[in-house]
Amino acid sequence: MQGIPYRTLETGEGGRYVEFISVDYMKETPDEPFKSSIPLIHATTPRADVLLAYEMNYEDIPREHGYPLRVIIPGCIGARSVKWLKEIKISKDECQGYYMQKHFKHYPPHLELDPPWVTTVDWSSRRPLMEFPVQSAICVPQDGIFLPKGATVNIRGYAIAGGGRAIDRVDVSVNSGHSWKSAERRQVSFSVPRIPCPCCGAVPHKVEIFDVFEADGDTAQLFDPQLLKWAWVLWKCVAQVYPRTEIIVKAIDSAGNVQPHEIDQIWNFRGVNNSCWNRVKVELSKAGEEKGNVCHCQCHKTFSGAAGVPQF
Question: Which residues make Cβ contacts (< 8 Å) with residue 228, sequence separation at least 6?
Fold first, then answer.
C-alpha cells in the first residue's frame, strides 16, 4: 500500500485495518454502502497477494466483476473482495458494516431460523468469515443422470482451498462412499499475451505461466505446493459406475483439512460455508426409457457428459 511499509501491523496513528467501501447499496442496508475490511498486516504482506484490479484478461474489468475498480483478496470469501470501489481507508477498528458484523458469520447448528432469531442472536459471538474452507464439486455427470449398468464414466470437477493452502488430494467414490480412489489433478500452463506498451510500443518478453505438474501431464507430482495457492484445481476420474448409486467427491488440502461428511455437521441459519461432500445421484437406465438425463453411449465407451465443462 502506498506510503505504508510491507508487513505493517499498525500505523503510527493506530490504524490496524484496511476498509474497502463500495458505491453499491444492498436492500438489507439501504442507508449504508457495502463495505468490508481486512487486517492491515494482511493487506501489506506480499505473499497474501492482495490486489486492486482494474483489468481482467488484459481488458477493462467487466461491470459485473466490479468495473472500474475492485479489490481481490485471494483465499478469502468473495464478500471481502469488494466491487465498485469508492473509497479505501485505514481505521483503528474492524469494519462495522452489516455484511461484516452480521451477515457473513458461521453460527452453530442449534440456532434455529425462527421468527425470534433476529433479536436473540448475539451477533458479536462469532468472528466475521475470512478464509473459506476446502471444497470440491462434481461438474460432470449431472445429478439424477441415467446410466446403463457398468458404464465407464469420465467424472470431472474442481477443488479449491482457502488461506493459500494447496489441494493435496481429491478422492472420488462411485459406490456411495464404500470405497474411494484418487482423482488425477491438473493445472495447465499457458502463454500470457504479449501486448505492446501503449507508450513506447515495446513488446515484453514471452512469459510462460508455470505448470505445477510433470511435463507429460499424466501425474500429480507437485514441484512446489506454494505454486498452487489461490488456484482452482481441475480433477478427473474415470471409473465404472453401477446404478443406482451416488458419485461422491471430497478434497483434502495441504494442511490436512478435509470436507465434512454431511451438512448436518455444519448447518447454520445463514447457509454459509456449506462445504460438505458433493454428491451426484446416478439412476439405472432401462430399455426404451428416455426420461431424465439419459446416457446414449455404449457401455464400452466413456461418457463425458455435458459440453462446455473445462477439460484437460
Answer: 166, 167, 187, 212, 222, 254
State the pTM of this model. 0.78
298 and 289 Cβ atoms separated by less than 8 Å: no
Cell of 221: 507430482
Distance CA 196, CA 55 (A): 16
Give Rg (Cα) of the chain. Answer: 23
Query: What is the rounded distance in angstroms from the CA atom of residue 188 to the CA atom of residue 3?
Result: 37
Q: What is the pLDDT of residues 18-70, one digit of tens each?
A: 999 999 999 889 999 999 999 999 999 998 999 999 999 889 999 999 999 99
Task: List Cα–Cα distances, 262 to 54, 266, 274, in angstroms.
Answer: 39, 8, 9
Smallest Cα–Cα separation from 52: which of 9, 16, 88, 24? Answer: 88
Instruction: Tell me the residue length of the chain.
Output: 312
Among candidate residues 186, 296, 281, the one with its CA nearest the CA of residue 231: 186
